[in-house]
Automatic annotation (TrEMBL):
Its EC number is 5.4.99.27. Signal peptide: none annotated. Responsible for synthesis of pseudouridine from uracil-13 in transfer RNAs. The lineage of its organism: Bacteria, Pseudomonadati, Aquificota, Aquificia, Desulfurobacteriales. Coiled coil: none annotated. It holds the Pfam family TruD. Gene3D superfamilies: TruD, catalytic domain. One of its GO terms (molecular function) is RNA binding. It comes from the Bacteria. This is tRNA pseudouridine synthase D. The keyword Ribosomal protein does not apply. Keywords: Isomerase, tRNA processing. The keyword tRNA processing applies. The active site is at 67 (nucleophile).
Amino acid sequence: MKLYSHIKKAPEYFIVEELPRLEIASDGKYDVFLLQKRNTSTLEAVRIISKLLKIPLKTIGFAGLKDKYAVTTQYITLPSGTISEEEIQFVNNGRWQIGKERKNSFFKIKFLGRTNRPLSLGEIEGNKFTIKVRNFEKSMREKFYRNFQTIKLYGFPNYFGEQRFGSVKSRDDFVLRYLLKGNFEEALKVYFLGKEKINVITSWQNIYKILKPTLEEYEKDLLKGLIRGLPAEKAFRILPKNIRIMFNFAFQSYLFNRFLGEYIKQKYPHIQIPFINNWKLYFYTEVEDFEKLKGLKIPYIGYEFPPEDPLLRKIIRKIFKEEKIDPATFNTEIAGIKVMTDGERKAIVIPKNFKIISKTKKEVTLEFILPLGAYATILLRNLLAV
């Protein structure tokens, strides 16, 4: 993807520091540790801590998921006294182990103090980013500085970034589409194969045989159940609940991006930028009604939060019709999860302390703070127009 030719050459090009909503004291029911990691996802680090230190996974509290291909700093909590060491380093030398030699993938935890409650998802003020943009060619500079000033003045559209669409394996392919139709068999084939291959590999035996080396244990159990004749709906429930919920999040995030993109496209001068799966994102270049836009919230479906803006109402109806979404599915339960639930998200994000901290002929280093839920990769797409 073109964006990544300009960032993430090495994890050190993408530095993320969590800004916690956390009071650290000298005593309390929970120990607070600083988790510093490189080339490792938050979930992977937490699982390794649980496994190697023999700590129940559910007792490890954390507030946010940080990028894998980055150098990141965040906070975790554990019940007081769970770990006696002040600092522990984990390295990947073919397999994860506790050690001191720094490898390509590693992380460490360092004791900071105590608090009276565990961290839970969402309990952060935001994240501070330091990002080096490379391959900063002369042809990019005029566009870059123009977009930089636009973002300084008007912020940028609050689209969901590509990280939100981990369950999408091919273009316009969402497991939830099939669940909404009650077609669990097709939903599972899309989950394992992606839309483009579901008519090529047809039997569960073949799917299991081909994918076995890459499958998680619960996926193996699921496919073995299907091979034995377990109904697809029951087999689907073998997937962990957090994964089933992500199918809903991914589809609703896609709808939100469509609502916001169409609103910008119809209302403001804009540029069009390619996104994953041949989707398009639209970024405004001028805004005449900034105060209104700054306060605008886009609903996920508009069921509990109907928008006041007539243009937005019209756009949501139009997209629901195009996507063949039946309002009868709103806020219903399918396979043990609530689907098509409503909520609101701000239409734009205004980065704090957005500045260039160094530059050469070929590289520019940026620094900025984003609130919880905003994506640095979306800001960068807007800035670089790629």
